[in-house]
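[Meeting: bench + compute handoff]

Bench side (C.D.) handed over the final construct sequence. Compute side (W.E.) agreed to return the predicted structure before the next meeting so the bench team could plan truncations. Sequence as handed over:
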Amino acid sequence: MVYVFLSLGSNVGNRRANLKKARAALSHTITILIGSPIYSTMPVGMSGKRVFNQILLCKTTNSPNQLLDKTQEIELELGRSPQEKGKCLPRRIDIDILTYGSLKVNSPRITLPHPKMFSRVFVLVPLEKLLTKIRAANPALYSKLSKSFVKKVFTARKALSIEKNAIRAMA
């Protein structure tokens, strides 16, 4: 089993319900251990409604490519158009693999860790909150996470400038 962090996002339709459906679909393939609170952020590189984002810590036996296949299949099942791939367009659901253990991959299909993870407010803020929650609630699990990854998240988050109203936690 490998620990993976996933990022979920939605800014079309019932955004909260879209995230819930994505989590339910993912739970048939991987073990979702814990999720961050849902955050609302301004869309990056596109127009449309605010994006609802959530970070999940999961365990999987799938390879990175198998996990990518499954996340893309779920995106399509939940209404994402194949024409959206690789474009900054409003979407019903977006599922990104942020990390796959400490594995580094740079292939035409997938890059791990996610190359933009440490520069995105909508990833770093929920990820920082999730790591803080794990450290307090489950020190044994926290100790299994890569120390260099955790340090990089907290360092990147502190260095990030966040505009007013750019991100807010949802109830």
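W.E. noted at the follow-up: The first strand starts at residue 2 and ends at 10. C.D. will use this when planning the next construct.
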